[in-house]
Amino acid sequence: MTSGAAPIPYQELIERSPFPMALIDRGGEYRLVNRKFREIFGWSLDDVSSGREWFARAFPDEEERREAVRAWREDLGADDTAVVRPRMFRVRCRDGVDRYILFRPVILEGGSRLVVYEDLSGLVFHHEALKAANRRLTEIIEFLPDPTLVIDREGRVIAWNRAIEKLTGVSKEEMLGRSDRAYAIPFFGAPHPMLIDLALTGGEDGIERYTSVERRGMTIIAEACIAEMNGRTDVHLWGVASRLCTPEGEVAGAIESIRDITEQRRNQQELRWSEARYRELVESINDIVYVIDPAGTITYVSPVILQVSGYSQQDVIGRSYLELVHLEDRAIALERLEALAAGRDGPSEFRMHTRSGEERWVRSYTHPVVVDGRVTELCGVLTDITARKIAETSLRRSEALLARMADATPFGYYVFDPQDDRILYVNDRFCSIWGVEDLSERLRAAEVRHSEIASRLRGLVPGPDSFPDAQGPTGDGEGRGGTEEEIELLDGRTIRRFQTLIRDEEGRFFAHLHLCEDISEHRRLVAELREYRDRLEDLVRQRTAELTRTNDELRREIRERLLATRARVESEERFSRIFQQAPIGMALFSLENRFLRVNEALCRITGYCREELLAMGPFDITHPDDVEAGRELSEQVIRGKIEGYVREKRYLRKDGTAVCVQVTIGPVRDPAGGSVSLLSMVEDVTERKKNEEQLRVYAGALQESNQDLQRFAYAASHDLQEPLRTIVSFTQLLERRLAGLDEPEVREFLEFIIDGGTRMQHLIQDLLVYSRVVTTGQPLEPTDAGRAVEDTLRALEAAIMESGARVTVGPLPKVKSDPGQLRQVFANLVGNAIKYRLPGRPPEIRVTAEPDGAFWRFEVSDNGIGIAPDNQARIFEVFQRLHTRAEYEGTGIGLAVVKRIVERHGGRIWVESRPGEGSSFFFTMPAA
């Protein structure tokens, strides 16, 4: 890390400096960074040598990077005499940590810069933490229940909380920032010194206005009586003021908290006035008046002790009062006694034993009597509060029950005291309705003020006055009946809210009660209900009309059912006659496979009489080899898996011979749809089986004969062609030799011979094609019908051009076919459309296809001569021609070949045509 631009001693000094330092030349290039720079930033000289890379790494925030570059350029432009001011930036170090760094550039001779960096991150973070702490302290002071003010060391008011606003009637805005003891004016009417001044300065100026002054270090506690304040007279205030110091011990200001003790002091005054009459009243009041010494020994007790505890005055005087206290409460009573002996009065509650052993709750208010600064005795009043305790227990149970009931209702409950901005009760339903579940726990713990929650809820409604402010009515006023309203929230929901004032038993207002209910769903249901009611009314009108029609139809149906019942009786009678007289065997048998009813035909088939069969079942007369299959099928019918079945089986006749029968089994169901029995129809098929066997023999012989005929036709067609070719060839040679002979009849005879031989060859060739459709066909495979048509049109291209035909081909599917035979079908049909055209009219041919179940139905239509209805079936027969050879060439076998090919593929072919308008040939092929 050395450079010739800086002297060696300075390099050592910079390298060993405890502060991060960098040496930058006049052009802005880093020449040296010291060890501390590398430790803090993590960047070496190589990392920061390029200014652009350094700024991109150290200042990832674009706005901060622009500010740093601007300051950098400004510093580089300063001359040698300029003083460059320090600047602080947030710098991203190599370890990813952001640090607040103070840049202190020093311009050296020659224009170089020595930049000293100071890490102020800790100071910045401490400053931020201090600001956050100040904010929290301000918030705490703001919500303190006692009136509180804070001044700085210059005497300016820096805090004036809500409680002191309420006490003095002076708002925070009027008081913050004021000095010259202006904070004393609301109390004394003039800027006199207060306790807070005495705590701040430590002086005595103004101390004479206070009584019961007590100093505890930097804290002063005292009381003052103010003749008039905020419309009130003779106001007694108790205050505590303390000096505020920094951690270094410097005075930063002072704080004073004030408490209104006017009522307390008035009570004490009245107590002093009553002391003169004490003895007179003690004997007449219902409460027990007692006096004990600091050790707890009873020195006096009023006679009422007898009515409360059963003890007389003589029984208890001279005894320790702890003996009368319940054993479980003695520790608390002893602790209270020690506090009283120390001069701290106050009430306490405990249980005491009566003479009869009964437990009674009593409330004791004891006051220490101080003489010359020493507690000499303790005077008190003991009140029997057993009835109140029982009532309180019942009240707590009732309140707990009411709370559980409130939590279980669909209404949100919210109660607050507008006097001190406190929330008295809120249930979970209120939080869920208003979407403040995150504040539920704090609301339950009364950690949130009403004004806070009101401010948050105002953000949920369109209008600012849709939720009450913290300052509600505080008197008895009007509005005893409450108000009810519906509030539309910003999220589209509707809240119904009922507000009322809560009053005590004497009718005094002390709190606000809000009941809330989310009626969004209710309103939606009401709207739906209205719509449903309208539809229902329409439906009722429709149903009334329908019922009228149905009533008429019902009368008609009753008449029809009577007729149907009569018909069913007649049908059953007919069924019985048919059952008995049927030529085939019929039987009704139970689900347990026992015959219930059989006819005479079944008896003839089996050789058993009716009584014998009724004692048996269908499987008792079934051949053993056929029983298992029959039982399984019958079970499936009984379980409803199949509706019935037909099968052939063998019965064993009574004489032991087997008879072949065809059995049809079906269920007989009750009105509920359950099977109650099975009906069997039995046909003796022994003779039919013999005939079928004979037919199979005949079919085999016929198939073999057909094969022999096909072989013969192929051989005959093949062998006949050879002599025909010989005849035609030699006749043609003879015609050429006799070309110069002037014998017209001879040439005509030769032409007849050649023409006849040629036609015979064509007939034999077509016959050979027809016979080989089945024998030489290829296996069926998925075939693109569109490709087959394209191949066909290329083969017929010459005929198409010659005739001027226009062929239109629609979208064609893939089918399962013999590709060669499919092309032959299209070739024959398109070729016929070109051949059988009307003179002077160019052929228009269209090839299309449509789905037809598991097949595709193709159509080849044209505008040709057409076919008469009587001839439409005949054209598909072999050698059937509708025109002479002079009109149209051909052998009459082409459409027969097409039909044979289509039928080989499992399809069918037909034609629809009108003479002079054209024809449409239809055929089907199986889908691929």
Task: Give the topology, please.
Blueprint: H1 8-15, E1 21-24, E2 30-33, H2 35-41, H3 45-48, H4 51-58, H5 62-76, E3 87-92, E4 98-107, E5 113-119, H6 121-142, E6 148-152, E7 157-160, H7 162-168, H8 172-175, H9 185-188, H10 195-201, E8 211-216, E9 219-229, E10 232-245, E11 251-260, H11 262-275, H12 278-282, E12 288-292, E13 298-301, H13 305-309, H14 313-316, H15 330-341, E14 346-353, E15 359-371, E16 374-384, H16 386-408, E17 412-417, E18 422-426, H17 428-434, H18 440-444, H19 450-458, E19 483-488, E20 494-503, E21 509-518, H20 520-581, E22 585-589, E23 595-598, H21 600-606, H22 610-614, H23 624-638, E24 645-652, E25 658-669, E26 675-684, H24 686-737, H25 744-775, E27 781-784, H26 785-795, H27 797-803, E28 806-809, E29 814-817, H28 819-835, E30 844-852, E31 855-861, H29 894-904, E32 909-914, E33 918-926
Parallel strand pairs: 28-30
Antiparallel strand pairs: 1-2, 1-5, 3-4, 4-5, 6-7, 6-11, 8-9, 9-10, 10-11, 12-13, 12-16, 14-15, 15-16, 17-18, 17-21, 19-20, 20-21, 22-23, 22-26, 24-25, 25-26, 27-29, 30-31, 31-33, 32-33
